[in-house]
């Protein structure tokens, strides 16, 4: 069985463990600083396996040594937003936590692929890449699958069509400046712009952009976890099964879309080589402008990180 270690056994970490184990994708190790909590969640999930007939083993621990020889490391450790906070407000606290999580896990799993969830997402993925010194195919951030799934869900609510028929692509940074690409999105091949009246589509785009905040405001004590964690499970599955799946993820840019030395949400191909390829869409002038606005916001957070941490 393959091995996946999840650093941070909170809401997204433990729910990701659930999705992974349910699909019998790997043995799962849950690491957290809180004593007893990862052990308790791990044992509880392990005890669910006989009922669903899956043989993934799940271990909760406070010791990085237990992550030895992981194929994939998922980083969710850190704090989540409370109402009124932006993702960037988490930078200082989470940079320290993610930096340690990345270097500690690398010691035990020098060959692992890293998938980052902790916010501010693009900047925490950047920190992980720089701290580990890994090539860019081995460090990916999860944001676009979630943001696109939110848009797909809102389109389904609006139209009453099966989510399976709805393809949406949300690119750019994982912030309120993200870029829902309505021109590339479709329902069973019919462009979204033809299917949904312009005012309704604009409302969907706006709700998508603020989708994370909508849930934070409802929950009040934390942020979304079901959809983010199944998104990360989809990424892990694509890598472990060498699926060559094209999904929007945060990737390290080396000239693509005119961007350099930063993480940004773009369509990538996931397979046994991790982030194997960045796919470049042809963007029109409006889309380019939206990309640039979103990129400027990510660059600002990257710059703030560089003031905090020596990279
Ligand atoms: O799509 C996305 N990328 C995201 C990201 C969607 C949802 C949540 N997103 C972000 O993930 C969120 O803004 C946070 O920055 C992280 C984790 O969110 P989660 O909802 O899982 O937060 P929790 O429940 O507070 O869990 C965080 C855990 C908690 O159990 C802490 O004890 C633990 O992280 N933690 C640590 N674990 C290991 N090592 C260290 N140093 C550590 N510090 C805290």
| CATH homologous superfamily placement of the largest domain | Lactate dehydrogenase/glycoside hydrolase, family 4, C-terminal
Task: Tell me the name of the CATH class of the largest domain.
Answer: Alpha Beta
Structural class: alpha/beta
Major sheet attributes: 6 strands, parallel
The CATH topology label of the largest domain is L-2-Hydroxyisocaproate Dehydrogenase, Chain A, domain 2
User: What is the terminal-to-terminal distance?
Assistant: 35 Å
Strand portion, in percent?
15-25%
In round numbers, the mean pLDDT is 97
Hetero groups: 1,4,5,6-tetrahydronicotinamide adenine dinucleotide
How many domains? The number is 2
Kindly state the percentage of residues in helix: 40-55%
Low-confidence stretches: none
* DSSP E strands, number: 14
Features:
311 residues; alpha/beta; Rossmann fold; L-2-Hydroxyisocaproate Dehydrogenase, Chain A, domain 2; six-stranded parallel sheet; three-stranded antiparallel sheet; 10 helices; 20% strand; binds 1,4,5,6-tetrahydronicotinamide adenine dinucleotide
Describe the model:
- This protein is an alpha/beta fold and 311 residues long.
- The chain folds into 2 domains: 3-141, NAD(P)-binding Rossmann-like Domain (Rossmann fold), CATH 3.40.50.720; 144-308, Lactate dehydrogenase/glycoside hydrolase, family 4, C-terminal (L-2-Hydroxyisocaproate Dehydrogenase, Chain A, domain 2), CATH 3.90.110.10.
- 44% of the residues lie in helices and 20% in strands.
- The chain has 10 helices and 14 strands.
- The strands form 4 sheets. Strands 3-2-1-4-5-6 form a 6-stranded parallel sheet, with helices on both faces.
- Strand 5 (113-116), helix 4 and strand 6 form a beta-alpha-beta unit.
- The longest helix has 24 residues, at 285-308.
- The radius of gyration is 19 Å and the shape is globular.
- The protein starts with a strand and ends with a helix.
- The relative contact order is 0.14.
- The model has no long low-confidence stretch (mean pLDDT 97).
- Bound molecules: 1,4,5,6-tetrahydronicotinamide adenine dinucleotide.
- 1,4,5,6-tetrahydronicotinamide adenine dinucleotide is lined by residues 7-13, 31-34, 76-81, 90, 94, 97, 100-101, 117-119, 121, 142-143, 146, 174, 222-225, 228.
């Amino acid at each position: 069985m393959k091995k996946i270690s999840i650093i941070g056994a909170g809401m997204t970490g433990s729910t990701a463990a659930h999705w992974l184990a349910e699909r019998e994708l790997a043995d799962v190790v849950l690491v957290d600083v809180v004593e007893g909590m990862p052990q308790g969640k791990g044992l509880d999930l392990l005890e669910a396996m006989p009922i669903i007939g899956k043989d993934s083993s799940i271990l909760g621990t406070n010791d990085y040594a237990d992550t030895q020889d992981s194929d994939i490391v998922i980083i969710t450790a850190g704090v989540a937003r409370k109402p009124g906070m932006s993702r960037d407000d988490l930078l200082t606290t989470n940079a320290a936590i993610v930096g340690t999580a990345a270097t500690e896990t690398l010691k035990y799993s020098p060959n692992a692929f890293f998938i980052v969830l902790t916010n501010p997402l693009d900047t925490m993925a950047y920190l992980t890449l720089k701290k580990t010194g890994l090539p860019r195919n081995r460090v990916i951030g999860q944001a676009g699958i979630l943001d696109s799934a939110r848009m797909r869900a809102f389109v389904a609510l609006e139209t009453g069509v099966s989510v399976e028929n709805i393809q949406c692509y949300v690119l750019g940074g994982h912030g309120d400046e993200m870029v829902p690409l309505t021109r590339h999105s479709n329902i069973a091949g019919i462009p979204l712009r033809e299917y949904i009246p312009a005012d309704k589509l604009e409302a969907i785009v706006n709700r998508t952009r603020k989708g994370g905040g909508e849930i934070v405001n409802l929950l009040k004590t934390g942020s979304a976890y079901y959809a983010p964690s199944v998104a990360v499970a989809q990424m892990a599955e694509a890598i472990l099964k060498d699926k060559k799946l094209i999904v929007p993820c945060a990737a390290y840019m080396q000239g693509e879309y005119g961007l350099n030395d930063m993480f940004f949400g773009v369509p990538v191909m996931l397979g046994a080589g991790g982030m194997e390829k960045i796919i470049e869409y042809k963007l029109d002038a409006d889309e380019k402008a939206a990309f640039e606005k979103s990129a400027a916001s990510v660059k600002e957070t990257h710059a703030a990180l560089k003031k905090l941490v020596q990279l």
